[in-house]
Design goal:
The structure holds three protein chains of three kinds. Chain A is α/β, with parallel strands linked by helices. Chain A has 16 helices and eleven strands. In chain A, strands 1-3-2-4-6-5-10-11-9-7-8 form an eleven-stranded mixed β-sheet, with helices on both faces. Chain A is globular, with a radius of gyration of 21 Å. Chain B is mainly alpha-helical. Helices cover 37% and strands 9% of the residues of chain B. Chain B has a two-stranded antiparallel ribbon. In chain B, helix 1 crosses helix 2. Chain C has 17 helices and 16 strands. Chain C is elongated. The relative contact order of chain C is 0.10. The chains are: A alpha/beta, B mainly alpha, C alpha+beta. Strand 1 of chain B pairs parallel with strand 2 of chain C.
C-alpha cells in the first residue's frame, strides 16, 4: 500500500487532489483496479472489468491536465457503471444470460455524459437480471455479496454498484431505480444513493425494466459525491421524450448549504404508513431512524407527521405496472437481432426455447404476471386499476407536501438479510421495497443515506428522504445536514467502519 | 377476481413465448397464484372518478424534427446477430402467415 | 357445391364491407427515429438502435408525421382528438423489431369522419370513416427455399429498413346497401384515398411499392323477409382479406370473396371469421393460419411517449392547407375546361392535371395547355422516360410560349424549336427565341426580296399563277420559307406572291 490509500478518499477529495497535482488519474484508476483485483473475487460486484479502457481514459486526462487544458470537475475520477447502461465497446448484459457477451453498437446518453466528463469507467457492475430483484441474487451471473458481511445480500437490483462503493472498489457508481434499486442497496451497504425526479436523467440507452418507473441515478459514499455525479448525469436529452426540459438542479450547492447544519424553517414530514409505527420494521432500523429525526430537529427543522393512506395499495399497484411494462419491454429478446439463440426448426420454437433458457425464474414470473395483467378481460382490473392507484399515491404526496418540504422514512424495513433466505418467497422479497416504491409511482425524487448501524446486528440502516418532483436539490440539503451531524460523531463516513473484506 | 391456475400460466407462457416444462408450470403457477392474489387489491380502492396516471410527470407534444440522422452501417447493425446472410438477419422457418 | 358468380351472390345476399387502408407517409425520416425513410436501399442500412429494437433505445415522435396524419384526418372530415396517445400492440414476429408495434388504440388522433367517393357514372357515395391513427410499419421478411413464399420456405431473412416507417391506418365504418356496386365502391374508395394522399403531398401513393395497402372485410347477410327491413338483419361472419395491393385486385378480391361466401352459405355451410390472403397469381384468397390462440395484443399506453395534443389554432391552420377533394376537383375542372371524357381521362392518367391548371392560370387557354402537355411535352417525357412534372419546363414557360404564338411572334414550328431550347436549359422561351433568332420575319421588304428571288428562280411557276392556277403559289411559299429558315409568316408570304404576280387572292 502506498502512503495514501486513495480508494478510501471521497470523489470530491480525489477531484481536488487531481486538480492540485497531488495524484494522477492513472494512479487513482490503478489503485481501484488493484483493489478490485484483490477483493472482487468474493464480493463479485463487477461483471466486467475494463482495465485497459479505464487506464487509457486516465492517461488522456493526465496528459490534458499536464498540458494545462480545462477539464470537467470529475475528470480522472474513476466510476463503476451498472450493467443496465449500454456502453459501446463494453459488454452489456443487464445481468441476464440472454444478453451474454452483447457488444452494443451505441452509447447510452448517460454513458456519453460520463465519457464527456472524462471519468475512467472501471467496469460494469452486477445486478438482478433486468433489475428485477432486491438482493442481486437474481443475477444470471451469480450473486454479489455485501462487503459488511459476505453471507448477506447487498440489496438489489443495484447490489453490484452499492457493494463496489462499500468495498472501496470505486468512489462513484451509476444505478437505476425502478422501485428502490438505488436506495435499497445504498441502505443495506451504508452508502448514499439518489433516485432523481422521473425524467431528470435520460433513460436513453438504459435497458428498460418498467419505462414509466425507471430512473437512472447517482451512487456514492457521501452526499456531496452523489451530488457531483448527479450534475454530470442529469439534464434534458432529445433522445428521451420523457426527459424533463429543465436544467439539472443545483445539487452540489444544496449539499454545501446543508453541510452548514442549519435547518431552521425546514418542515420535515414523517410518513405514518412508512415509519414503522404499524410494525414490520426491525427495531434497530427504527431506532436509528428516530435518532436521525432528533438530529434534524436539533438543527432547527420542524418535524410533523403526515398520512398517505393509499400507500397501502402502492406495492400491489407496483407489482402490476412493473410486470406489465416489463413483459412488453423484454419481448425484444427474441433471438433475431442480438443475444442468445437456442436454434430450433421454426422461428416460433426458437423464440420459445431461447427465452426459456435465457431468462431466469424471477424474470419469467414477472413476464407471465405482466402478460396476465394486460391480457384481454383483465386489463381494467389490473393495469387500469393500478394506474388509478398511481393517481391516488400522487394525490397523497401532493397533500403531504402541502404540510412539509420533504418526507422521511427508513429506506428499508430491515438490515441486509442472508443470501438465499428469501429467494424462494417472492412476496417476502417484494416487501423490501415497501418504503421506496411510492416515489417511483409518483415520479418524485428520493435519497437514501446511512443512519448508522442497527445495534442488534451491527449492519447498516438507511434513512430515506423524499421531495416533490423537480425539487431534487432539497434531498441534498437535508441529506448533507444529517450526514454532517452523523459523521461528526462517527469521525468519518459510515463505510469506514465496515470490516475489511478478506479474499 | 379470477384465480390464476396452471392452464392459465401455460397459455400466458405461450403468449409470452417462454417454453415451460411441467415442473416450471408447477412451481411458477403456485408462486404466481400467491402474487396475483396479493396484487388483486388494486381493484378495490380507486373508483370510476379517479383518472389513470400513465406518465408520472405530465407533459405532451414532445416531438422530433423530421431531419435525417446517420444510421448504423450494415455490418454494425448485423454484428450481434445470431445468424445473418446477404445483409439480412437470418431466422429459421416462419410458420403460418404474413403479418 | 355450386359455385356462384359475384352477380348471383349479390342477387341472393346483402353485402356488408369495410376497408382498412395503410398509407405510408413520405416524411424524410421514420416515425420514431432519424433513419431515412426511402424505398429501395441496401438491406439494413437505414436502421439504428431505435428501429432495430436494440436494448435501451427509445422512440421520439416525428413532428412532420403527426402533421401529415392530422392533415389526412382533416381531409377525411375527421375530428382531431384534443389529446391522443400511442399504445403498444404486443405480438411476436421476426419483422417486428421490438416485438410490439407502436400504434394508437383507444385514443386515435383522428376519428369520426366521412369521405365522398365519386363512381364512374358520377354517383356520389358517402363512406363513413371510423378512425385514422398513426403507427409504425414492420420490416420485411424474405423467404428462402421452397417456392419463395412463406409456406415451405427453408428459412427467412429480415430487413428492417421499412421497420418504423410512419403509417396512417384509415378504418371505415361498415358500409352497407351497395349491393352489386360493392366491388366498384371498394375500388373507388381506395382510389380516392390514394389520390387524396397524393394531393395532400403526404405520400407518394404508390400501391405497387406498398405505400398504399388495403385490407378488405366482407360479409354477406340474407335479404330481408317480407315486411322486414334490411337493417333488421344481423351481419354475417366476415373474412378479412389482406395483401390487396392494386385497385384492380380490390375489385377482384371483393368479387372472389362474395362468390366464395355465397357458395358456402347456399350450401348450408358456415363462413369462418378469419384472415385470408389475396393471391394476385391465382386471383383467389386462401385462409391464414387458424387462430387456436385468440389474438390478444395486450394493448397498453406506450410509456416512452407522451400524449399528442394538437393546438386548436394549429389544426385550423392545417385545415387551410387541405386541397379540394380530388374527384370533385376533376369534375369541376373538366367542366371549366370543356374537355371530353376521354381527354380528361388521358390528362389524369398522365398526371398532368395540376400542370395544365397552372399553365391555364399563367394565362393560356385550356385547349392550348392540354395540347402542349399531352402532345409535344408528353412525347419528350416519354422519350426521356420521366414524368411530365420532372421535365425542366414550368407551366409558366409553356404559357409564355403559347403567348408568343398567339401574338404572332413565332409560329408553331418555331415554337417547337424554342421549346427545345427551353428544355435544353437555354432560358425562358423569349430568351431562346431571341438567342436563336427564331422570330417570325415580319419585315415586308425582306420578304418581298425573298419572293422576288424565288419567282425569278421559277419563272414557270410565276406563269402558272398568272394563268390563274393560284394553288401553284404553294411552291413559292415553300421556297421562301426555306430561304428564311421557317421564320416567315406563310400567310403574309402568300399575299406578297399574289401581289407580285398581279393576281388578287
Amino acid at each position: 500500500m502506498t502512503t495514501t490509500d486513495w480508494t478510501r478518499a471521497t470523489a470530491a477529495r480525489m477531484a481536488d487532489a487531481l486538480a492540485a497535482g497531488e495524484v494522477t488519474s492513472v494512479e487513482l484508476t490503478q489503485a481501484h483496479l488493484d483493489r478490485i483485483g484483490q477483493i472482487d473475487g468474493p464480493v463479485h460486484a463487477f461483471l466486467h472489468i475494463d482495465a485497459e479502457g479505464a487506464l487509457a481514459t486516465a492517461r488522456a486526462v493526465d496528459e490534458d491536465r499536464a498540458a494545462g487544458k480545462e477539464l470537467p470537475r470529475l475528470a480522472g475520477v474513476p466510476i463503476a457503471v451498472k450493467d443496465v447502461l449500454v456502453t459501446q465497446g463494453l459488454p452489456t448484459t443487464a445481468g441476464s444470460r440472454i444478453l451474454e457477451g452483447w457488444m452494443p453498437p451505441y452509447d447510452a446518453t448517460v454513458t456519453r455524459k460520463i465519457r464527456e466528463a472524462r471519468m475512467p469507467i472501471l467496469g460494469k457492475t452486477n445486478m438482478d437480471e433486468f433489475a428485477m430483484g432486491s438482493s442481486t441474487e437474481h443475477s444470471g451471473y451469480g450473486p454479489t455479496r455485501n462487503p459488511w458481511d459476505l453471507d448477506r445480500i447487498p440489496g438489489g437490483s443495484g447490489g453490484g454498484s452499492a457493494a463496489a462503493l462499500a468495498a472501496f472498489e470505486a468512489p462513484l457508481a451509476i444505478g437505476s431505480d425502478t422501485g428502490g434499486s438505488i436506495r435499497q442497496p445504498a441502505s443495506v451497504t451504508g452508502t448514499v444513493g439518489v433516485k432523481p425526479t422521473y425524467g431528470g436523467v435520460s433513460r436513453f440507452g438504459a435497458i428498460a425494466l418498467a419505462s414509466s418507473l425507471d430512473q437512472l441515478g447517482p451512487c456514492g459514499r457521501t452526499v456531496m459525491d452523489t451530488a457531483l455525479l448527479h450534475e454530470v448525469m442529469g439534464g434534458h436529452d432529445v433522445n428521451d421524450a420523457t426527459s424533463l426540459p429543465e436544467p439539472v438542479p443545483g445539487c452540489v450547492d444544496a449539499a454545501l448549504v446543508g453541510a452548514r447544519m442549519d435547518l431552521t424553517g425546514v418542515r420535515i414530514g414523517v410518513v405514518k404508513e412508512l415509519s414503522g409505527v404499524d410494525g414490520g420494521f426491525q427495531d434497530g432500523v427504527k431506532q436509528r431512524f428516530d435518532e436521525s429525526l432528533e438530529r434534524l430537529r436539533g438543527m432547527g427543522a420542524e418535524v410533523v407527521e403526515v398520512s398517505c393512506p393509499s400507500f397501502e395499495y402502492a406495492l400491489a399497484a407496483y407489482y402490476v405496472i412493473l410486470p406489465s411494462e416489463a413483459s412488453s419491454n423484454l419481448a425484444k429478446f427474441d433471438s433475431v437481432r442480438f443475444g442468445l439463440r437456442v436454434e430450433k426448426d421454426t422461428v416460433e420454437k426458437t423464440m420459445l426455447a431461447t427465452r426459456a433458457e435465457g431468462f431466469g425464474d424471477e424474470v419469467k414470473r414477472r413476464i407471465i404476471l405482466g402478460t396476465y395483467a394486460l391480457s384481454a378481460g383483465y386489463y381494467d382490473a389490473y393495469y387500469g386499476s393500478a394506474q388509478k392507484v398511481r393517481t391516488l399515491v400522487q394525490r397523497d404526496f401532493a397533500a403531504a407536501f402541502e404540510q412539509c418540504d420533504v418526507l422521511v422514512s427508513p429506506t428499508t424495513p430491515t438490515t441486509p438479510f442472508k443470501i438465499g433466505e428469501r429467494v424462494d418467497d417472492p412476496m417476502a422479497m417484494y416487501l423490501n421495497d415497501i418504503a421506496t416504491i411510492p416515489a417511483n409511482l409518483a415520479g418524485i425524487p428520493g435519497m437514501s443515506l446511512p443512519a448508522g448501524l442497527a445495534p442488534e446486528d451491527g449492519l447498516p440502516a438507511g434513512f430515506q428522504i423524499l421531495a416533490p418532483a423537480h425539487e431534487d436539490a432539497r434531498l441534498y440539503r437535508i441529506g448533507a445536514a444529517l450526514e454532517a451531524s452523523l459523521t461528526a460523531d462517527w469521525g468519518g463516513p459510515l463505510t469506514a467502519q465496515a470490516p475489511e473484506v478478506t479474499a | 377476481m379470477s384465480q390464476l391456475d396452471r392452464s392459465d400460466v401455460a397459455r400466458l407462457a405461450g403468449l409470452a413465448r417462454i417454453d415451460m416444462t411441467d415442473e416450471d408450470l408447477d412451481r411458477l403457477s403456485g408462486q404466481l397464484a400467491v402474487i396475483v392474489d396479493a396484487v388483486a387489491k388494486v381493484a378495490e380502492v380507486a373508483g370510476e372518478d379517479v383518472p389513470a396516471t400513465s406518465h408520472p410527470i405530465p407533459m405532451s407534444n414532445v416531438h422530433r424534427e423530421d431531419e435525417v440522422r446517420p444510421s448504423l452501417a450494415q455490418d454494425a447493425a448485423l454484428a450481434a446477430a445470431p445468424d445473418a446472410e446477404d445483409g439480412r438477419f437470418r431466422v429459421p422457418q416462419i410458420l403460418g402467415e404474413e403479418a | 357445391m355450386t359455385t356462384m358468380t359475384y352477380e348471383q351472390a349479390m342477387e341472393e345476399f346483402d353485402p356488408v364491407f369495410g376497408i382498412e387502408v395503410h398509407v405510408e407517409l413520405n416524411t424524410r425520416t421514420k416515425m420514431f427515429c432519424g433513419c431515412a425513410n426511402e424505398f429501395g436501399a441496401e438491406p439494413n442500412t437505414q436502421v439504428c438502435p431505435v428501429c432495430l429494437g436494440l436494448p435501451g433505445a427509445m422512440p421520439v415522435t416525428n413532428e412532420k408525421a403527426v402533421e401529415s396524419a392530422v392533415r389526412l384526418g382533416l381531409a377525411l372530415g375527421c375530428s382531431i382528438r384534443e389529446s391522443s396517445r400511442f399504445a403498444r400492440k404486443n405480438y411476436f414476429y421476426p419483422d417486428l423489431a421490438k416485438d410490439y408495434q407502436i400504434s394508437q388504440y383507444d385514443e386515435p388522433t383522428c376519428y369520426e369522419g366521412s369521405l365522398d367517393v365519386v363512381l364512374d357514372d358520377g354517383t356520389v357515395v358517402e363512406i363513413g370513416i371510423e378512425r385514422a391513427h398513426i403507427e409504425e410499419d414492420a420490416g420485411k421478411n424474405t423467404h428462402v427455399g421452397g417456392t419463395g413464399g412463406i409456406q415451405g420456405a427453408d428459412y427467412s431473412l429480415v430487413d428492417y429498413n421499412r421497420g418504423g416507417v410512419p403509417l396512417v391506418e384509415i378504418v371505415t365504418k361498415p358500409i352497407t346497401g351497395m349491393g352489386a356496386r360493392t366491388a366498384e365502391v371498394a375500388r373507388a374508395y381506395v382510389a380516392t384515398i390514394r389520390d387524396y394522399v397524393r394531393a395532400l403531398g403526404i405520400s407518394d401513393g404508390r400501391m405497387e411499392q406498398g405505400s398504399v395497402r388495403a385490407d378488405v372485410n366482407l360479409s354477406l347477410r340474407p335479404k330481408p323477409a317480407a315486411g322486414e327491413s334490411q337493417d333488421d338483419v344481423p351481419f354475417g361472419k366476415r373474412s378479412e382479406t389482406k395483401n390487396v395491393n392494386s385497385l384492380r385486385a380490390i375489385e377482384r378480391a371483393v368479387h372472389y370473396e362474395a362468390a366464395r361466401q355465397a357458395s358456402l352459405l347456399l350450401a348450408g355451410k358456415p363462413v369462418v371469421q378469419e384472415t385470408r390472403h389475396w393471391h394476385e397469381d391465382t386471383l383467389s384468397t386462401t385462409p391464414g393460419r387458424s387462430k387456436e390462440e385468440a389474438e390478444d395484443y395486450r394493448y397498453f399506453p406506450e410509456p416512452d411517449l407522451l400524449p399528442v395534443e394538437p393546438a386548436r389554432a394549429w389544426v385550423e391552420e392545417l385545415r387551410g392547407t387541405i386541397p379540394e377533394h380530388p374527384a370533385k376537383m376533376r369534375a369541376r375542372l373538366q367542366e371549366e375546361w370543356g374537355f371530353a371524357d376521354l381527354e380528361m381521362r388521358d390528362v389524369v392518367a398522365a398526371d398532368a392535371l395540376s400542370l395544365i391548371a397552372e399553365t391555364i392560370a399563367a394565362g393560356t387557354t385550356a385547349q392550348a395547355a392540354r395540347k402542349w402537355w399531352m402532345g409535344e411535352l408528353s412525347r419528350v417525357a416519354n422519350d426521356r422516360e420521366v414524368a411530365l412534372a420532372a421535365l425542366p419546363v414550368t407551366p409558366a414557360a409553356v404559357a409564355e410560349l403559347q403567348g408568343l404564338i398567339d401574338s404572332g411572334k413565332i409560329n408553331d414550328k418555331l415554337a417547337r424549336q424554342a421549346l427545345e431550347g427551353v428544355l435544353a436549359g437555354e432560358g425562358s422561351p423569349a430568351e431562346v427565341v431571341a438567342a436563336r433568332g427564331l422570330e417570325v420575319v415580319s419585315d415586308d421588304s425582306a420578304l418581298e426580296k425573298a419572293v422576288d428571288d424565288a419567282l425569278a428562280a421559277q419563272p414557270d411557276v410565276l406563269a402558272k399563277i398568272q394563268d390563274g392556277k393560284v394553288q401553284a403559289a404553294g411552291a413559292i411559299v415553300g421556297a421562301v420559307m426555306k430561304a428564311t429558315r421557317g421564320q416567315a409568316d406563310a400567310g403574309r408570304v402568300r399575299e406578297i406572291i399574289l401581289q407580285r404576280a398581279g393576281v388578287e387572292g
